[in-house]
Amino acid sequence: MKEITMPEEKSVERFFVKIRAGTIKALNDLQKVWDLDVFRHTAQELTGEFFEVQGMLTDVEIGEIQSQGYEVEVLSDADEVARQRMKELQRKDDE
User: What's this model's pTM, rounded to 2 decimal places?
Assistant: First the structure.
């Protein structure tokens, strides 16, 4: 498997995701081989011999690992979550 590189463009969309793989080795490769931003503490074995971990990936990274056989479920737009949290913090500061 090749390492995923970040595109040169300025606006890269990032997403919180769940990534599923058929083996624990494939799940470990997400961080060790692909150098992706995965949240190791969320790793778990699912019923049916699948393994899952959550992470934050760009749209390019999602496409790359899907082409390698990983299943990716997008949970939310990371940038939108960050914008909402900033609004909440600003409201608290204004109180």
Answer: 0.77
